[in-house]
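Practice problem 4.
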């Protein structure tokens, strides 16, 4: 059972950063995490390095609703994070908490 409110929008998964881009992506990630956590609709936003796969970052996030998530996507898509992480493979699943 989820502690999240009904209608919350969730995303879980990972990104796989090529070794030669880890430093660049990690640096941009600091500001990306800070800015995302400051968004009005963000419930939580966690991105952590995977201890088992080099260059993999585990992503777990929740927003109050899909509109808040879409706002996040739009803001992030026009940020330095988008440039730093462009073409980095992502494997995410999303769902609405029921």
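Answer key:
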């Amino acid at each position: 059972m989820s502690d999240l409110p009904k209608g919350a929008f969730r995303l879980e998964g990972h990104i796989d950063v090529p070794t030669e881009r880890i430093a660049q992506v990690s640096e941009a990630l600091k500001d990306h995490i800070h800015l995302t956590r400051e968004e009005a609709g963000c419930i939580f936003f966690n991105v952590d390095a995977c201890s088992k796969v080099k260059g993999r970052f585990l992503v777990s996030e929740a927003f109050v609703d899909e509109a808040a998530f879409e706002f996040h996507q739009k803001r992030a898509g026009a940020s330095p994070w988008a440039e730093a992480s462009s073409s980095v493979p992502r494997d995410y699943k999303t769902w609405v908490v029921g």
